[in-house]
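Input/output pair, single chain:
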Amino acid sequence: MQAVILAAGEGMRVRPLTRGRPKALIPIANRPIIGYVIDALVRNGIRDIVVVVGYRKEQVTRYLSQLEIPVTVVVQDKQLGTAHALKCARQMIHDDFLLLPGDNYIDPGSIARIVNTRNAMLIREHPSPSNFGVVLLHDGFVTRILEKPEQAPSFMVSTGIYSLTPSFFEYIRENDITDAVTLMLENGEKIHGIIADDWQDAIYPWDLLKMNARLLPSIEPAREGTISRNAIITGVVRIGKGSTIGPNTVITGPVIIGENCEIGANCCIMPNTSIGARVRMEPFCLVGNSLIMDDCRFGSHSRLVDAVLGEGNVLADHVTTCTSSSLMEIGGAAIRPAFGAILGDEVRAGSLTTFKNCIVGNNATIEDGNRVISSAIPDDALVI
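Output:
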């Protein structure tokens, strides 16, 4: 059994976090999403793995080269669709294979349910089915797939994970996998619908918070840094090498803190928080239910809750996120999500800035001035 992972796409709806990295490399619990996919395959004995790369392909290739198992890399020069990406790997496929997206989490148990079944797809109920291919079933077999319908007749959706044979290529006419699967069904082929145990996709950037909260409890606890004797640590917590935890700081797991971080005195890190490497947090900060990437710095008395921060953010003292909901339009869809803030890479914010249910683009700068940011800020903007 082989596996083909599609990791060529950008993930436009997850911008601004994907301007500098492909969606498959977004770190969840300090590990790229594609790492969980590969782990699920290896734990099921599948080691013949092909990864199709495209957008920011050098970054993906570099990550894959550091893995313990060899991975074959194929380049999709133009991102023309999932079926086109699969066709780029055609010469590498000589056996039955699993097809998986590289930017969705899937657990090893779900792979075990499908790996021995030919012509099958993993499916799962989702509260927002119109964002996916909605699957109609009869007696355990797929009868139809409706791609992102406005009015979904079912909550059952495709995870984009298939068990296929090389004959599947005969049905590829267009650039999307769903079209080829539909042609298979029209030709009388049967496709098993197998319910996944666990599957997570982040359609929008705030969905990363849910994925992060789901995966954090499974981390291995470790305390490899220097921890003050007056710090209080409870629950599942992992602290990386070279990190320091100041006195009177309270950490309540599940929490992961990367290597070489500086967490100041009298801080509070609440559950469902992942903190990348080389993050500096000055005293009296509070962080909770947040995903913070590498090389961020926070001034004292800052409060970050329900937030996703890209790499290299520098926030001055008394910066706050305020969780609320407002109507947004992303990719032509009107939605009302509830979160604190989504900050791209290299954002700068002055003292007393409040981020309220907003998305801030990469390299944006908010100057000092007791400001409330409650609307979208584009890349490279200056707020004065």
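The longest helix spans residues 33-42. The chain has two domains: 2-203, 216-383.
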